[in-house]
Amino acid sequence: GLVQNFDGLIRMGLMSFNFNGSATESGSSLPVTKVCSNDKSKVCTTDIDCLSPGTCAAAASGTENRDGSAILHYIGYGHCSTTTTTPCATKANCPAGEKCVSDGVGDHTTWMVKAIDDLKAASWPPFAESFYNAVGYFAKSPADTTGKTSRTDLRINASDFSDTMNPSEYRCQNNNILLISDGMSTADRNAAVDNLAKLYTAAGGSTSWTASCPQYAGSVNLDNLAWIAKNRNINSFSTSTASTATPQEKNEFIKTYVVFNGASNGQSGECNSETLLTNTATNGGTSIYKAEDPAALSDTIAAALREIAAGSASGTAASIVSNRGQSGANLITAIFYPEKDFGKDANGLDQKRTWIGDLQNYWYYFDPYIANSTIRKDTNGDKILDLKDDYRIDFIFDDATSKTLVKRYNDDGLGSYTLINQVEPDALKALWKAGVELYKRDLTASPYRKLLINKAGTLFTLTTGEFATLTSTLWTDLKSYLNVSDNTTAENVMKYIYGYDISGYRKRTVSGYAGVTTANMATGVGDWKLGDVVTSTPKVQSDRPQSGYHLDYGDATYETYINSTNYKNRGMVYVGANDGALHAITLGKVSSLADGTKKAQLTGSGVGTEEWAFVPANALPYLKYFTDPNYTHLYYVDTSTLVFDASINKPTGCSASEYWNCERKASAPSGNLDLAGTSWRTVLIGSMGLGGASRGADATCSNCVKAPMNVDGFKEHGLSSVFALNVTDPKNPTLMWEFSHPDLGYTTSEPAIVRINGKKDASPDPDTGKNGRWFAVFASGPTGPIDAASHQFMGKSDKPLKFFVIDVNATPPFVQNSNYWIIDKLNDNTQIENAFGGSLVSNAVDTDKGNRYAAGFYSTDVVYAGYVTPETVGGVTTWTNGGLLRLMTKEDPNPANWVLSKVIDNVGPVTASIDKLYDDADKVSGKPVLWLYFGAGRYFYKNNTDGIDSADNQMALFGVKEPCYHTTTGPSKDIDQTCTTSVSLSSLTNQSSNTPNESLETGKTNGWYINLDGTGTYGGKDFKAERVITTPSVRTNGLLQFTTFKPTADICGFGGETMFWLLNYATGAAPPPGTLKGKVTIQLSTGAIVVIDLSKLSSGSFSRGGRQIDVGVGKPPAPPPPADTLKKPVKRVLHIQER
Question: Among 621, 659, 615, which Cα is nearest to 893's?
Answer without folding.
Answer: 659
